[in-house]
Each structure stands twice: as C-alpha cells, then as structure tokens.
Amino acid sequence: MTDPTPTLDPRRWRALGFIALAQLMVVLDGTIVNIALPSAQHDLGISDANRQWVVTAYALAFGGLLLFGGRISDRWGRRRAFMVGLIGFAAASALGGAAVNTGMLLGARALQGAFGAILAPAALSLLAVMFTQPRERAKAFGIYGAISGGGAAIGLILGGLLTEYADWRWTLYVNVLFAVVAVAGAVFVIKEPEGARHTTRLDIPGIVLAGTGLASLVYGFSKAETDGWSSAGTLGFIIAAVVLLAAFVVVQSRGRSPLLPLRVVLDRNRGGAYLTIGISVVGMFGAFLFLTYYLQVVLHYSPVTSGFAFLPMVVGMMLGATQVAVRLLPKVPARFLMAPGAFLAAGAMLVLTQISVGGSYATHVLPALLMLGFGMGLVFMPAMNLATLGVQRQDAGVASAMVSTSQQVGGAIGTSLLSTVANSATAGYAKGHASAVRSAADAAALKSSAMVHGFTTAYWVAAGLLALAGLSAAVLVNARPLGGHQVESDSKAAEAAEEQETVPTLAH
C-alpha cells in the first residue's frame, strides 16, 4: 500500500503559482477571444454563419476530450501531461494568432481545446496529489478556485485591453507568454509524488463514447442558441448525447479498466460537488453573457471599460475563496459554505432583475457583482476540494477532469438556456409594444427596453438555478469539517478499497 502521508515537497507553494497561471490561461481563453471576435471576423472575412465556430470549435474539443485528458494524466504522470498540454496549447495559440483565413483560425481553436483538455485535469490533479495536509489543501484550493471562477472576468478585461490597444491576434499570442513561464515552473519547480500513475490499459470504448457524447451535448446546446430548442438539429444532437452517455455509463459499470471508475462519481460528496459546480456555472454565465451587452449596448461602455466593470466580481471571489472559505473549511462542514454561497449568488441575480435602461452601474450592477463573486468563492473552493478528496492517486486525473467537465457542460447549457429565455422575452416585449412606435427614436428606445426586459427575465431563471445549486449542496454534500487527518484517512480508505477490488459506497 502507498504511504498515505508522504514527505511534503518544500517547493509545493511555488509550484502552486505556476499551476494557477496555467489554469488562468485555460479559463480566460473562454472569454478573451469573445471580445476580439468582431475584429477577427472583419480582418479574416469570417462569415456570420461561421463566426460562432470560433467559440464552438474550442468548446467541442475541450468538452469532448476532458475525461480522456484526465486519464492521460493518470497514465503519463501529471507533470508530463501538464507540460505537454502547455506546449501544445501555446503552439495552437501561436497558430491561431498567425491565422490568414477562417479555416486556419478554427483549426487552431480546436487544437487549443484538445490540449486544454489535457492541461486542465493535469493542473488540478497536481494540486490534489501535492497538497494532502487539510489546512494547506484548503489554502491551495482557495487560490485555485478563485482563479477558476474569476478567470472568465479577467479574460474580458485582458481581451478588451489587447483588442483596443494592440491587435486581436494578441488575445491568442498572449497564451505563449503564459505557457513559457508555466513550462519553466514545471521543469524547475514542480515535482509529482511517486506512485501516482495508473498503469492499466486505456478504455477505448469509453473514450469514444464519452468524447462523442459530451461533444454532442455541447454542440446540441450551442445549436439551441442559434436554431431554437425545437429544431431537428438541436433535438437530434441532444438525444444522441443522452444515448451515447447512457451507453458510456453501462460500459463503465462493466469494464475492468474503465475510463471513469464509477466510484469516483458515486461518492455522495464528490457527486454533490460536481452537480453543484455544474448548476452554479449554468446560472453564473448569465452575469457574463448579459451584463456585457447591457454595459456596452445600453450604458454605452467601451470594451475596455466594460471589462474593468467586472473587476469587483473577481475581488469578491478572491475574498470569498481565499479569506473566508479557507479559514472556515477546516472548521465547518463544506455545505455550510457552499449552500449559503449559492444562495448569495442567487440573491445577486435578483438584484440584477432590477436593471433598467436608465439605470446606473453603481445602483445595481456593482453590488450584484460583489455578491456574485463572494458567493461563488464560497462555492467553488470547497467544491473543488471535495471533488478530488479521498480519490486514489491513480484516479486523481479523471476526478479532476470531472470538475472541468461540470464547468464546460454547465457553461454550454447556461449560455444556450439563458440566451433562449432572454431572446424569447425580448421578442415578446417588442411585439407587445410595437404599436407605440411613432418615430425612429421610439424604435431605438423600444429596442433597448426590450433587450433589458429579456435580460431581467433571464436573471430570474438564473436566480432559480443558483438556488437549486444551493439546495443540491445542502442535501447531497455531508462531508465533515476538512480538518485533522481526514484527507489522509480518506486516501488510506480509498487505497484499501482498491486493494480489495471493491467500489466504495456512498458516504453516510
């Protein structure tokens, strides 16, 4: 049996800095390119029909390959997978920055997603195997959770700055700079503990079913945003995803070397953590999606100003994750942080339902962003800690991949669901008030009013989803305070279960 209390690496805190930098690069890439998209479209002559593929190509490759990427890090070793992911992501980013046509940019974005699917699980699983002392683990995951949650907002800021003062291509080139620093850290600082690799054969049927199922699910929801929920394409891809993922579960339950051992997700606390993260991201995406339009179209902010307008959310998230959750997690059950955090975020969405055409940033947007950031900090930090707590070391990569999968699928569902709600409400409002239009000024005013009405309607739905996330945390997560020797004892129990070839039962 592997020693459950290995010697602690004296360089682990420096390693955390490089791991966090790599995670920031992956997370902010989901939004940094969005800001630059209009400029890239004009420069390369991308058609309106192909424009969405700049975002979708990345999401499909990333979401479809995450579980495979997690298992790769378990087999190769997390440090090696981390470096391969970094180098590949940087190369793909450089290719995209140098793109001369639509196909070259789309191919580069797909490659970014593929290498991101290797990098993201490797980064989180490195933390899981390097930080085993409960209090240190809480601090490490607090920093990591804050970056994972706030990275999207940082992407909006950086994307606005680079697009306005440099060139859209630098939203891709900047990843090369991040990667060079992180690779140097991986070479000279990061050291993976021994005995953490998974040496069994790859589950090829599982890889195919998981990859195609998750990609189909992400694409189905992206089709819903553009074609509607009742379109044949949307329904076809979502139904195919359900069938493929159901077959994946069956294969995993019967396979001798499954891609995703069901013991990873059937644990009550880990399953509750994955579900809470996924639902929270569904609701949280409403803030990014609609506030960007509200600030730029209704309040007439520039891209840079609107990007900086999200900074209070990042500050709130850092406070919630690194100052409050880190101190309380060793002392109180995780659900006492996660549930209130999700309910606070739901309250932030309720504040955003009060935005108006003549409103101001300070009145509703600023307090809502502070509440949302602080609440999500309380959710993400304990959830990411629990998501990898007690797993066997050789399963740390795939357990970490489930965190990213929850975020990716939640983001795809959130974007599509809330966009559909907002668009439907906007169209209904415009139609109902069309008779009052007497001039061009009236038409412009109606357009703004209808847009804001659509946003506020979607925020009501987002508030409900975040409240549901709070309920899932309250009901499913029952882990004791993560202090004392729980991390070590959970690891020991997991390894004992592996030796006896049994699947750990649900936590009670």
Describe the structure.
This protein folds into two domains: 12-194 and 259-490, Up-down Bundle (Growth Hormone, Chain: A); 204-258. With 508 residues, it is mostly helical. Helices cover 79% and strands 0% of the residues. Residues 1-5 and 484-508 have low confidence and may be disordered. The protein is globular. The two termini are 25 Å apart. It is built from 18 helices and no strands.
Which labels suit this protein?
transport; disordered N terminus; 18 helices; about 80% helix; mainly alpha; about 500 residues; membrane
Order of helices and strands: HHHHHHHHHHHHHHHHHH
Largest sheet: none
Spatial separation of the terminal alpha carbons: 25 Å
Strand content: under 5%
Assembly type of the chains comes to single chain
| Tally of contiguous helical segments | 18
CATH superfamily of the largest domain: MFS general substrate transporter like domains
Q: What Rg do the Cα atoms give?
A: 22 Å
CATH topology-level fold name of the largest domain? Growth Hormone, Chain: A
Secondary structure category: mainly alpha
Write the layout of secondary structure elements.
Blueprint: H1 12-44, H2 48-51, H3 53-76, H4 78-97, H5 102-130, H6 134-165, H7 170-188, H8 204-227, H9 232-254, H10 262-266, H11 268-298, H12 303-309, H13 311-328, H14 335-352, H15 361-387, H16 396-432, H17 440-476, H18 486-499
Helix pairs in contact: 1-3, 1-5, 1-6, 1-7, 3-4, 3-5, 3-8, 3-16, 4-5, 4-7, 5-16, 6-12, 6-13, 6-15, 8-9, 8-16, 11-14, 11-15, 11-16, 11-17, 13-15, 14-15, 14-17, 16-17
